[in-house]
Amino acid sequence: MATNPSAPAHQWRTSPTPYEALNAHFAEHPEHSLAHPEPFDTSRSDIYVEHRWQPIFAEMRREGPLHYIPESPFGPYWSVVQHKAVQHVESLPELFSSSWQHGGITILDRAEPAEGEEAFELPMFIAMDRPKHTGQRRTVAPAFTPAEMKRLEGDIRARTGEVLDSLPRGKTFDWVDTVSIELTTQMLAILFDFPWEDRRLLTFWSDWAGDTELAAVPGLEIERRAILFEMAAYFQQLWAKRAELGEAPDLISMMIHSPEMNQMSPQEFMGNLVLLIVGGNDTTRNTMSGIVHAFDRFPDQRKAFEENPDLIPNAVQECIRYQTPLKHMRRTASEDTELFGQQIRKGDKVILWYNSANRDEQVFDNADDLDIRRENARRHLAFGYGIHRCVGARLAELQLRILLEEMHRRRMRVHVAGNVERVRANFVEGFRKLEVEVTQF
């Protein structure tokens, strides 16, 4: 399948989504989706697609902050499940490495290349340690400053309004595709100065790049790599065109004019594209869907939103906490150490479960409930903590705030009115489909 930046996306994209591919795989091999006998193995995607992960983590938190999982589809690992414990590990980046060279940021292990083949690695700045992490993060950080947010706000509001005004009334439609994907993909296209007619490729690439379980299915991992190489080829053409121009505020131009990023290897270039696309797409997109689903599940909170728009800024933080669009990040011990009374060995895999930390009863009262008046909602860890905290957090918060403000301005109430399909993944927490109907309050 060849990429052509001048061709419309619908002429190019013929592959299934990773969710379709995984569902087909598990339908053909049901034994692969059975729950693992280790009761605290939260790496299995069945507990997420069936939305039954909460009591498992609640039991783990009651028993302590750290648990060793000796056997899983991803090998042995340590689970960090309490809020304070996750912050503690995040605050020690030299001791608990994020580097791709030690394993990276997801529960996956580094794939061993076949004989005669080159290792397939995706270095990206979130999967680097200092000092290289610092230089590359500084390169893209100017795209997310308060001044940039102010500059972008009018455009985001106008585009959000256009999408909301186009929604059908009295008809069931998929909120995920029509609103969440469309708004976040538009935003990514603006950040990259990406060809507008091909913007849905960004969503397609994000889905294939962000699904860690694909790597556990050999045939799907081969397809995933092919799609990522096609993504890189498309962006390399954009890079070549952009290199002929002067400095500009888009992310590609920022990388071109950065000493820390303008000499990246092809795989490092691909890795940073994956980071920026997945980070800019999945987190905001799935919270946009999570807000609608949560308001439908907690009608008293939807009523509070409708009666008091001053609650919107805090509602954004609470919805991010409640949804927690990225479930985990992985760290690797760089030396032998003791952690919460347990002996951690150099090279051990340590998984930080943000979804569990954000439901920690020691921090959040009635943590499984949505409460848009929650006084400490901002203590959520959905964006991480410490030096690796999400560089685009302000933009995500801005997009979500504007969405709620524009929904309120139109007195728009969204009801879940059909199928709800969750993403089968242990990394991204999201919705594949959310059928809704729009009315007014």
Question: Nutshell version of this structure?
Answer:
The protein is α+β, with helices and mostly antiparallel strands and 441 residues long.
Task: Pick out its properties.
single chain, 441 residues, alpha+beta, Cytochrome p450, 5-stranded mixed sheet, 3-stranded antiparallel sheet
Our measurement of the CA-to-CA distance between the termini, rounded to an integer number of angstroms, reads 48 Å
User: Roughly how many Å is the radius of gyration?
Assistant: 21 Å
Helix-strand pattern, N to C?
HHHHEEHEHHEHHHHHHHEEEEHHEE
Give the C-level CATH assignment. Answer: Mainly Alpha
Query: Share of helix among residues?
Result: 40-55%
CATH architecture: Orthogonal Bundle
Please report which band the strand proportion falls in: under 5%, 5-15%, 15-25%, 25-35%, 35-45% or over 45%. Answer: 5-15%
Largest beta sheet, briefly?
A: 5 strands, mixed
The SS-based structural class is alpha+beta
What's the structural domain tally?
A: 1
Overall mean pLDDT stands at 88
Q: What is the CATH T-level topology?
A: Cytochrome p450
Q: Can you identify the CATH superfamily?
A: Cytochrome P450
Keywords: Heme, Iron, Metal-binding, Monooxygenase, Oxidoreductase
InterPro entries: Cyt_P450, Cyt_P450_B, Cyt_P450_CS, Cyt_P450_sf
Function: Cytochromes P450 are a group of heme-thiolate monooxygenases. They oxidize a variety of structurally unrelated compounds, including steroids, fatty acids, and xenobiotics.
Protein name: Cytochrome P450
